[in-house]
Amino acid sequence: MATYVLLPGFWLGAWAWRPVAADLRGRGHDVHALSLTGMGERAHLARPDTDVETHITDVLNLIRYEDLRDVVLVGHSYAGAVVVPSVADRMPDRIKRMVFIDSGPLPDGMSHAEFAPPEERRRNAELVRAEGDGRQLPPPPWRQLASEVPGLPDGTLERLVRLSVPQPWATATTPVRLTETWEKLPRLHVLCGFSVEQVRARIATVPAFRHMATESSAYRELPGWHWPMFDRPGELAAILHDAA
């Protein structure tokens, strides 16, 4: 039996992991899917100052108070880019492996918003100003994004539209602060939007990808949507099971 902590990306809560978590529990694992502050059933706790440090503390406290050890720490998208390495950096003795779902760790001093191309960054900033009271990024147009995704289980799109909540914008703009401690831990990258070959090409030219080139990094390709917990949950759970 392994211990998993599952962290969702932007706009999502623990509910997004339900099929994956159920599969892993059916295999005998201990699974903790977490809604970060301001997300999911904790949406009412969002504040203008909810930032990356808030979310890092959420995970550190879960691990501490549940006394979790040898944790397979799984982060999708945003959570993988900044929360997973930060938690591992501060509590390396509790982490067995880091798993990045269509994501990778950003370098020290870089924010999640800075990873986006300039046009997308400006567009998101305007959405925050015009529709998010200057402090939240509204959920994306899920129906449009999912229009070309084959095989989404019944009810998935309806749940995305109904349960997604705005993302506290400070979580995107706060720079990550890291030492080198986390880099000693093994990691797995589950690639959905990029192939291994494409990632390796970017490692050579894009500084934000440099932490994906280490001897402790392994790669698994799971081609499909950026949100594999929705379109390929069984296959994702099998990869996570193997990662233990």
From TrEMBL:
<dbReference type="InterPro" id="IPR052897">
    <property type="entry name" value="Sec-Metab_Biosynth_Hydrolase"/>
</dbReference>
<dbReference type="Pfam" id="PF12697">
    <property type="entry name" value="Abhydrolase_6"/>
</dbReference>
<protein>
    <submittedName>
        <fullName>Alpha/beta hydrolase</fullName>
    </submittedName>
</protein>
<dbReference type="GO" id="GO:0016787">
    <property type="term" value="F:hydrolase activity"/>
</dbReference>
<feature type="domain" description="AB hydrolase-1">
    <location>
        <begin position="5"/>
        <end position="238"/>
    </location>
</feature>
<keyword id="KW-0378">Hydrolase</keyword>
<dbReference type="InterPro" id="IPR000073">
    <property type="entry name" value="AB_hydrolase_1"/>
</dbReference>
